[in-house]
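Quick start: read one record
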Amino acid sequence: MAAATPYQKNVFINCPFDRTYRAIFDALVFAVHDAGYIARSAQEVRDTGEVRIEKILRLVRESKFGIHDISRTTLDRATRLPRFNMPLELGLFLGAREFGDRRQREKVTLVLEHEKYSYLKFCSDISGQDPEAPNGEPSEAVTIVRNWLRTHSDFGMPSADQMLRRFTRFRRQLPAMCHRLHLHANSLIFVDYAALVSEWLAENPLVNADHRRHR
């Protein structure tokens, strides 16, 4: 079997970045990496010289997989307007799949929403995408992402129960890992968190019956 290219392993995560979403975001990143893929985010590079839409387009172009959370449809308290960034980025991803070259047409999408079928009230054009709803539960987010990626993978990965146990262990050990590196677990930037996830996974390989890590 040919080795997977970076494009085939990249998972673009398009989601809110505020504190109230952080637990779900952390769960998404862990699940992506424990499944053998690489989480990509607009937060991975802080370059004021790169226009934001250009950064998003680059991430879309470089990622076969996309997780798009469109659950934030409530009005902003200050502006009284909703935020459209997540639906816009979902549209870019779907457009790349429809109109791009052969590689771009391989794209696979997971749409997350606040509660099942709520998208029909504000974004009915994506009917057929079959969005999932983690209901604000990190454990649900882990299971959803694991099962989604498994249906598009031809290699082994932890079962949903195994991944949840591993995620629980990682979260329990994260403060000590941060302390060793003089970081604060509650204020990690994306690149630090992703690096800690990768380090922990390297030190805690999944041991299957044949004592090999399937990747």
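Residues 160-180 form the longest helix (21 residues).
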